[in-house]
Amino acid sequence: PLQFGPDEDLEHYPRTLQADQQMLTSEGVDLLFTPDVVTMYPQGAHDSTVIDVPDVSQGLCNDFRPGHFTGVATVVARLFNLVQPDAALFGEKDYQQLAVIRRMVDDLGWPIEVVGVSTVRESDGLAMSSRNQYLGAEERRVAPMLYQTLCQLIGEVKTQKKDYRTLENEAKEVLAQAGFIPEYVEIRHADSLRPADPGELNCVVLAAARLGAARLIDNVRA
């Protein structure tokens, strides 16, 4: 629960354990570890030691979900200590989260290979997410524009014809006109997540926007 803020959707967050179990079984998975809150936080979630990862956890989603990445780093660290994995796979859709976990593992010297898994998309480009079920029919029709806008933005980055901050603002305006409430659209260095300098091509464009009851995030690498 640490990664959810007081006004977020912890109680209503989609939980699909049975469906997940069926998919994992069909893929030949041998073991599934599904610890409860008491196992993860024996002292209580809000009375436990927490991990705060510097730099990559700042800005972007953290500006709109303060404390989120402290919760993410803490629960993942606890999971790693319980499981002692050789490798851990995380989706690239949550790009900042992946960067936070990689930085934590590197800083703490854990012998764990953190592997980024490519974003899985619907046929129209919308990144798959459990929160997509919050979308109404019309919102679902509009939702792929987030990915389309980021693809267009990364194309503009490659042409190097406009200032990056101008491109970010133009992309936010496109999303707003389509019915989104943009939280951020930013061009960042793909590894450090610092704001990319003009002319820099090792970039990722990241965005978060609300559409109806859903908060959607996505990113595209240059």
Structure characteristics:
222 residues, alpha+beta, Rossmann fold, Pantoate--beta-alanine Ligase, Chain: A,domain 2, 2 domains, 3-stranded antiparallel β-sheet, two-stranded parallel ribbon, pantoate--beta-alanine ligase (AMP-forming), Pantoate_ligase, ATP binding, Pantoate_ligase_C
Description of the molecule:
About 40% of the residues lie in helices and about 15% in strands. It has about 220 residues and is of the alpha+beta class. The protein folds into two domains: about 15-115, Rossmann fold; about 130-220, Pantoate-beta-alanine ligase, C-terminal domain (Pantoate--beta-alanine Ligase, Chain: A,domain 2), CATH 3.30.1300.10. The strands form two sheets. A three-stranded antiparallel sheet has the order 3-4-5, covered by helices on one side. α4 (about 70-85) crosses α5. The radius of gyration is 18 Å and the shape is globular. The mean pLDDT is about 95. One of its GO terms (cellular component) is cytosol. It is an enzyme of class 6 (ligase). Keywords: ATP-binding, Ligase, Nucleotide-binding, Pantothenate biosynthesis. GO terms for molecular function: ATP binding; pantoate-beta-alanine ligase activity.
